[in-house]
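User: Can you fold this complex?
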Amino acid sequence: MTGISLYPVSNLPLIEPGDDLGSSIVEQLAAAGQTVQPGDIFVIAQKVVSKAEGRLVRLADVTPDARAQEIAQIVDKDPRHVQVVLDDSNEILRTRRGLLVVEQKSGWVCANAGVDRSNVATPEEGEEMLALLPVDADASAANLRQRLLDLSELDAETKLGVLINDSHGRAWRVGTVGVCIGCAGLPALWNQNGLHDLYGYELHASEECIADELCAAASLIMGQSNEGNPVVLIRGYQPPAHLAATTARIIQRPAAMDVFR
Amino acid sequence: MTGISLYPVSNLPLIEPGDDLGSSIVEQLAAAGQTVQPGDIFVIAQKVVSKAEGRLVRLADVTPDARAQEIAQIVDKDPRHVQVVLDDSNEILRTRRGLLVVEQKSGWVCANAGVDRSNVATPEEGEEMLALLPVDADASAANLRQRLLDLSELDAETKLGVLINDSHGRAWRVGTVGVCIGCAGLPALWNQNGLHDLYGYELHASEECIADELCAAASLIMGQSNEGNPVVLIRGYQPPAHLAATTARIIQRPAAMDVFR
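Assistant: Here's the predicted assembly.
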């Protein structure tokens, strides 16, 4: 049987600000007797991308303002953490005890603007760090893709996908799933309008978010805490050949088109 | 490298009401030299489950009432189709041109109550059929699981997952992704509260929807139109060993807890 396979890129070193993530990936592939192959798709956890890019804030350095303190009361979180969330948000969508849903600066609607304090530093007193989303995760994905191509001596036209994933909660459904916040070398969406099904019916309003499905699949291997497996290699998936690569930003539903804001 | 693999169960016959879907799956596996193995997870497209269960309505037999006609005007859909959607819904959440989001009778929040007219019959005049969601997709999954076990002479304690997936749109994000509406033999959710990350931080509010991620992954092989590959076999995924199997209904966020209704 031929199908799709997902593998962890194991034994990556702990990523620190300034680290060359692409190089670490290629090295650990080599250690497993593998190389980057045309058609490969790498899904990379947002947290390691943010760490490599130095998107870190030391909690002890944050002084919450009055608004952050007020919202911290409502949502029952550390006011300094709330301040960091607000600083990286365009708009607050919902607040409730335990819940702070915003539109993050690059447009993603998610809890806490994707700011997370786990997995970013040792929990020594005064040294707690928060990791923010990359400033432009599409650019992060494109840069990582180019780095993987360069290190593998493959040209820029090579089919190679790099996706950056994060775990997001959803309206209506319990639990988080992996979604795509950065995309390079792949089409994020597959618009099937105008195609016909098995029986000749034209498909309407059919647009599949391939990038989110790939990121959800990869999350099964990462585990939500991203411990040990922040990079997943997907082999055997071929996106529809007629589709050009896109950014992940096209997945963002414009606020004016969104009836659930 | 060891990881997770997804395979289409190819060459399934077109499913008709009353068909033994479990038997067809085992037969086509056998034709590919395979058998059902402990640890296997089968993801099955809702449409073929609904067809096998006879959850079909002939469009020509439907007489829309005044409310269906009024809503059909707003959403710009066939009033008969709208009537079928309303008949299988608890509540309308949003209407807009091209959009009708409801809470379907078994509790799923989705467009058109999951009612779809593609892939259910040849498009002869007067013979257009609509497929509704299964009455109880968790029961459908449990029945299919038992049938696969029986046909494979495996006992009821065997680790074997059966998930029923559907393609749902999302708030905030463009495009549909595969989600789980029926679950048997697997835990749908992995609550990680209380676990610690790599650095010793306790994970809070961390609950991963494994079932949705598996269904999203399988959708990559099905394609949204489910042409030809309505059944996907996933091998190599092991849910956390301490978790008991659950239904998919536990994924439904209670309306009172949902700030996006």
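The helical segments of chain A are 21-31, 46-52, 66-75, 79-87, 137-151, 210-222. Chain A touches chain B through 77 residues (CB under 8 Å).
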